Each structure stands twice: as C-alpha cells, then as structure tokens.
Amino acid sequence: MSSHRVTAILVLHDGQLWLPEVVASLTSQTLQVDSIVAVDTGSIDSSAKLVKGARIPVLPMDRDTGFGEAVSHAVATLPASSDPEHEWLWIIHDDLSVDRSALENLIAEVDTRPNVAMAGPKLLGWHDRTHLLEIGISIAANGNRWTGLEPAEYDQGQRDGVHEVLAVSTAGALIRRDIFEQLGGFDPNLDLFRDDVDFGWRLYSAGFAAIAVSSAVAFHAEASANERRSVDVAEAFLHRPLLLDRRNAAYVLLVNSSWWRLPFLTVQLLAGAIFRSIAFLFAKLPGYAGDEILAVGTQFLHPGELFRARKVRKTQRLVPSGIALRFIPSRWSQLRLAASRSAEWVREQLFPSEITEVRNPSLLDENLDEEDLLTPANSRSWITLLKRPLIAATLFLFVLTFFWSRFRLGSISGGALPEQPSGVSALWNTYFSGWHSIAMGTSASAPTWMAFLAVAATPFFGNVNFFIAALFFLAPVLLALTGHLFFKEFSTNRWLTTSGAVLYALSPVAISAINSGRLSTLIVLLLLPLLAIAARGWFEIEEFSWRKVFALSLLVSIIFAFSPFIFILGIALTGFSIYRDYIDSSSGVNIVLFNARLYRRLALTFTPLLICAPWSFELIINPNRFFLDSGFLLQGSGPNFALLGNPGGPGSLPWYLISPLTLVLVISLFSSTRARFIAEIGFVSLLISILFSAISITGNGTSIATQLYPGTLMAITTMTAIASAIAVSDKLRERLKATHVNFRHISAAVMLIATATYALSATLWVATTAGSAPLQSGREIVLPPFLAVEKDAKTMVIRPRTVGEDVSLNFYLARGGDARLGDPDMAPSNREQITNAVLELADGSGLTSSSTFALNGIKYLFLKNPTDENLVRIIDGLGGFTRASSTNAGIVWKISANTGTVLFTNLAGKTTVLPISQSEFEVTVPEPGTLTLTENYAQGWRAMQEGQRLDRNRSVVNLPVFEVLQPGTVSFLYDGSLRRALISLELIIFITVVVLALPAGRRRREIEDSELA
User: Fold this and answer.
1) Is 216 strand, coil or helix?
2) CB of 164 within 8 A of CB of 211?
3) Could you tell me which of 438, 390, 229, 595 has the C-alpha nearest to residue 936?
4) Which is nearest to 790 in space by CA: 942, 972, 918?
5) pTM of the prediction?
6) What's the distance, CA 529 to chain centroid?
7) Please, which pLDDT band fits residue 360 given cuts at 50, 70 and 90?
C-alpha cells in the first residue's frame, strides 16, 4: 500500500463532450485516488451536472477564472497536510483520459526520486491514440513550445523511459503539494497556456526536478489549443487562444531568463513575431497575424508586471535560473530536427510507400515472431536508384555537363550575357534607381526580370555570379527534370518519357541558349513545361479556382519578364479562347459560363502586365521591345535554320546536325491519337518561328538591324514535338506487333533512327566544341582596365562586326567599364548626331566628330582589336583626337577638346568644364551663365542653388540646360519620386497576387478532428 496521498483536481470548462470518459478513467485507477475535487469555471453546458452525478464535489467559480487560479482555489479548500513530502496533487483537465495504471506508475517513479517534485505521463492523441503528443515539454528561444517530436509522430515506444525534463503538461501533472504551495502555485499572470513551462522553470530554480514517465499514459484532446471551446479567461480579452499562448510564451522567457539575456530575447521575440505574422498574412489569416504582434506588444505595454514577476522569482530562487537552459533546445537542435524532417520527406519521395502482400500466419509461419510478420515482403536500397530511368538520365547529363561546361567554371560572360555584379544589392540598386548612367543616360525602367533574378540569387548568399554560373552549368539536368514532369503526362513508360526529357535538354534551342548565354531563353525552357502542366484544362478554365488563376499568373509573370513575346502569344491565345468560349456558350446564350471563363482569362492575361509594371508599360509605348529578350542582341540564323528546328546564332548546332523536330511534327500530324492536337500547336509555333526569324530589328543599345532569335517560339516547338512523339510512341510496340508492315512501321523506324542519330551527334558535338562557345568564364573584357579608372567617364567603343563575309563597325558608349547585367536592356538609342559622327570617322569626313563627342561629354575613343588600319590612319589624321595608348586590346584616343559631365557657358559664350565635388554631385559656378549636363534630357533632373530650383531647358542636342543667375554652389540630383511610387505600387500588386495565390490557412476550429489527429 502506497504511503503517498493523492488528491485529483479536475478543472471543468464546457467539457461535457469528454467528461464521461475522463471521470470513468479517473475513478478506475489501479492505485485509487484518495480524493477528487472538481472546480467548475462557469461552464454553460452540463459539465458540472455530469461530475456531480459521479459524486464528485464541485467548487463553482466565475467563467473568466484562470486555470491556475482554479487549481489554487481547490488546494486552498483541502485540509492541512500531515505529511507534506508524501502528499501530491494530480491535475486533470476535463479533456484528459488517463490509463488505468497511470497514477500507479507515476507514484512508483517519484517514490524512488525524492528530488522530483513534478511528474507527468506520456500524452497521446484523443482521436488517434497512436499519435504521440508530448513526453515532457520545454520552450524554444523564440517562444515556440518544444517537444522535440516529429509532426504527427507515431508512438512505437521509441521515446519510452523516464526522462528528466524542464516541465510536463498540466494535463495529468503530478505535483508535490508542499512545493506547489511554496512556489505560490501557477503564476496568476498565466491564466491559461505556458503555466506548465513556467512552473517547471521555477521548480528547477528552487532546487527540484521534473520527470516524464512513459509507462504512465494519458489521452489529451487539447480542446482549448485546438479551438474546440472558447477561451474565456480574464487575460484573453479577445478570446483568442493563439494571442494568449504567444503572449504567455514571451512572458515566461522574459521573467525567468537571466537579466543579461533579456535584450537578445526581446529582439528575437519581436523579430519572430514579425516573421510569423507575415507568414500568417500570406496564409490569409490576418487574425493570427494580429495575435502575433499583439502578443509581444502587450508585454511592452506592461513592463511593471514583468519586473514584479522577476522579483518574486528572485525570492524563490535557490540556484541560478540558468540551470534550466540545458532543457531549452539550441539553434542546432532546431536545425537538426528541420533537417531530419526534410531528409524524411526526400526519402518518402524517392521511396514512396507501396502496397505489400498481406501475410496471413499459418502452420508454415508458426515459428515466426511478430516482428517477422511486420517486415515488408520486399525492401528498397539506394543502389536501386541507378536502375531508375530518370536517375540514370540525370547521371548521364551530369557527366556530359562536365565536358560541355568545362570552360564555364567560375564567373561567366559572353554571347548575350553581360558581366554580372557580385551581389544582389547591385541588382536592387539598379532596379530601384530612377536614373541609369548607361550611354548618354536613361530614365528607362529596369526590367522586372532583374528583381526576379535578385530574389532567386539571394539563397545563394546573394552571389549573382555564382547563381548564374550554377544555373548555366546545371541547365541540362534542370531542363531534363522540368521536361520530364511534363512529358510523363503522355505515357506511363518512364524510359520513353526520360528519353524525351534528355532530348529536350539536348535540343538545338537548349544547346544554343546555353552556349550563347541567352538567359531569357534558358528560363523559358525551364519554366515552360511547368506552365503547360499548370495550364492543363485551359479551355475549361471555369473549373480553375481563383487561387490557381493567380498562381498561374505569377508563373506567367516570370516568363513574361524574361521573354516579353510571351505576352503577344498570350493575347493571341486569349482572343482565340474567348471566341471559342462564345461558341461553347451557345453563341453567348449561356452568359454565366461565358463570363466565368472571360474573367479568369482576362485576369490571367493582364495580371502579369501589372506585376511587371512600370517596365511592362514601357513595352507598350515601344512595341518593338516585345520582340527582344534580355542581354545583348544576338542574331539568329534566319528562316532556313528555323525550318529545321534550329534557332541558329552563335553557339548553335551547325546546319548539318539536323534535329528530328520537324520530321516528328509532320509524322504526328497524321496520328489519330491526341498527338495530332499537340503536333498542330507545335507546327503553328514552327511556322511563326520561321516568319519571326526573317524579321530584323534594332534594339538593346544597337543601331544595326539584327535578325531576331526565335528562342521562345522554338522552345514551344521543341516541347510540343517531343510530347507528340511520346504520345505517338506510347504502346506503339504493341500496336505494331498486332498489324502487318505498313506506313506506321516505316514512320516509326525513320523517327527512331533520326532521333538516335541526332542525340548521338549532338552529344559528341557539345562535348568536343565546348571551347568555342561564346559563353565562357574569364572572358577577355572589351574595355581596357585603365579606362575604367575614371568613374562614369564616357568612352566611345568601336569594334568590327562580322556577319557572314560582311564586316561592319559596331559601336556603343561605355561608362567607366564594360556593360553590366541589365545595361543592354535599358540602353537608350544612339543619338543621330553621335551616330553620324562615328560614320563620318569611318569615311574620313569627320572633321567635327571630336567636337560632337566633346559636346556630349565623351572623353575617349577606343578602337578594339582587330583594328582597321585605314580607320586608324583616318583618326590619327583628323584633328581633335590625341592617341593615348596602343595595347593588345586596341587603341585609345583622348578627345582633345575640354569635356566633362558639367559644362559652364558664361554670358560671353565661353564654355568651360566645371570640376565636380567628390562627395556630392555639385559644382561651383564663378559667374552667371548656363550649366549643361552631358546626360540625356529627362523630367527628373534638378539643379538647386541655395535651396532654389534653377530653371531647366532642353538644348538642341537633347541635354538638360539650367540658367544660373548668380555665382555659387549648384547641386544636381535626379528626382526618382515617380519611380519609387511606381515600384511601391508594383510591390503592393505583387504581394496581393502572392497572397491570393497561396493556399488559405485555416483556423484550428475549422479543422476536422480526424485531421488534427
């Protein structure tokens, strides 16, 4: 017979749903409870009546009474203790059912541990009684409740034993009565939630310990935390469980931690609350977001409460409060648990659970143990991954990539890809800036793809160079993976779909995009399969939820930012679809169906336009930019190459390595399967590609017409051709075996031979010609380093340009260095007078060329090797140019006329160059006159003198001119207020669309019990 006396204290609050089982479990213990006292905190259901019916005395209290206050009230009614060290309080919630031997096992463990003043059972779920909820608890430094368990962890005895813990839940906690009274019970400031952790912390500070006993089992419904009943305690002024929980979590940390940790805890709690509130906003749970902020805010509104509580703990403390820190999980423990969860998720994806044969025990199995019966009939090992088609293809592409990209290890540039800044901060600075010092300067909006690129590079430690290099290096593997996601929709034969994915990664357009640094085309190739998967069912778009529509619009926005031509295709597809919707809705009679489709199509088409504003609005003003991709404008190879499925251009496959794309499309057009519809799309895309390739256009800072590169259209053609081939080939072997030799046999053989020949030849070509690809690491820079010393100095760069056998001159204005990422996309068109000055140099008539250059602030002329000796002689013979250097890079001339950023013309007409202050963009004017800024004219330019704005005019050569009426200091600035306002609007639109696209979270009261279990 036990020498311990146990009083069970049952706290009631609208618990009639669980009380019958709770009371039954409490009264049927193998070690009988000595007495039971119930406290009813104003239940409005039949809780009190049920308990009274079981002959348990009930103490009534107000409805807003806190849990700790209710327990203390019950303890106060108990008779004085005659043996304090052996009298225990067993705290029971009205939603807690205890196992019959729970109390006996708890008493057995504390009986041998005199220093233990609190013990608790292993808590399992109420609905799923294999769900391990808690076996001891603690608190993380960010206030989260810490159990150290996996989500929905299955109880298999893996946590069994007696464990020393910081605290146990008050649900089933066994506490020595004398210690409970000595510490003043639960903190009265913690009406509900976290009172258990706080009590455990104070317990250790007083020199005692707490244990969790797995042999004692209880089943907890967690009704208050799961919002199965209202939280009516006085502290919960909004009746919100999360608000009270987060408030109490902050309170427990702040009142129990050492004083020197308080600043760190304050910052961490505030930062954690902000991040979690943002997450809740994205989950469309503004109430929970407000709870997070209010929870921390209420602590700072009542600092006196914290100071008083710390004083109380100081009087009760026998050992330093840091004794409890060993139970608080370290950052490493939290990261390790997150990594474990991630690894388990990856393993589940690689080894999905399979249905195994059910083994019925029989006479043959009589010698088997239960563990043998539970062992799966077959098992997986990591070596079996090599036998999977996608894994084998990935390894093949990895090996090929090392040969293909061996000259692209490190920072890469060349072809269409300019040099990249080292960090994302430079990208953001460019994106937010209202003025860009490119060529003669421009106020053009930075393209939206720069923002997307900055976001994507941030997880790579913000290193843009590394991200771009990794993207192009891993491009074949990534293309195969995204392609396979799309192609597996057309066949269950994984060898067939994987082969298609490899062909997609080695297609002519993919090879061309990777070799020539076409970032836009590469992004389109990567995301187009995902877009096709997400847009499946386009013609029945009324079945799309609005969340899916906005999620799809985000994906389209990214593709549109890199390849604006997608918008043109989207407009055409939307127009055709609206016409088809009109026909499907009985020529407009079914207006509900028509409108449901119309609104979704319009939202999906025009939302990307708003997300990419204001850059997208500038495309509308300059429609030719819809045909330009990011980076330098490199030509394609024209319609003949496009007809063969090859976009051509630098770094592309030669014409004799004919891809089977066109052949596949032609064969698929005669198919009777769904391959025909896919082939029709691909054939239309191929025809448009041919027409597109015949167009020449100027742009991206060039004044020379260049044949367009049909990368986006060719990506669509490639994807549809491979998809149609897979659809045709699916189960083709069975169909051919069932028929005599006919055209299907012949076409299948031709398609197979052409595809195999192309795959082999393309693989050998990319592996052996990698050194000649335009995109390389460590490319020679165009501008000599010594010209980049002078920050923002303008240099006219002239270099020969070869197109076939024709050699012409290409020229552009450099500003203190080579073109950087984004510069070609924002570069203004060359002025006519500057273009004429360069052309006059070439034909020897440029007597005024140096004057024109000086007027526009151009300081140097650089002729890049290989130079034209005739042109060199002409420049040397003309006046106004002084040769500064001649190196292996080329020849540099300095403009003889005095020129700079700011030109001052006095009233007598004399022009001088004013030096600019190093710290500020300001000059000192010696007398009245005019100031000319050698930048393109824009409305944002301002000149300030003594707080007054100077009058601004536009010169005949499109430069801003300011009237100065008196000598003094003049400051120049560019007012980017409009740009900042537009960016703010863009950010609001983007966040709104993201929130609409994300799945809506649910309050816990909206989740079914079965899901919570």
Assistant:
1) strand
2) yes
3) 438
4) 918
5) 0.75
6) 19
7) very low
